Amino acid sequence: MFRPLVVSMREGIAYRAKGNLLWLLHRISGLGIVVFLGFHIFGMSMAAFNPALHEHALELYKTPPFAVGELVLAALLIFHAVNGTRIAILELRPQLWEKQALVTRISIVITLVLTLPTVLVMAAKSISHFAGH
Known about the structure:
Blueprint: H1 3-17, H2 21-49, H3 51-61, H4 64-92, H5 100-131
Helix pairs in contact: 1-2, 2-3, 2-4, 4-5
């Protein structure tokens, strides 16, 4: 059952050793997003099938570990979207492959510019919520 995942991760690590860390990070961020979506769909469907479990899940989502998880998820989503856009641009404009290093640096800067304020605002709201303000 987990063999494809193990093979994918092993290949990703081997590929990373050849110098393409973004490829591996894109795969990991995509996997994290898919896992979140699976849990989210399951949890929300429980509202119709098992309301007590749904309410329990909602209470669990209001805890600090899940707040940290939301910060990680936001960062994963932003990275995955920006890196996916970089990949699409390079595929649609093959002449840009010559400038791949520049395009990669630009995508990293865009990711940081979008992620830092997002995470800071989310973290401030979580801290305010848990501090009772």
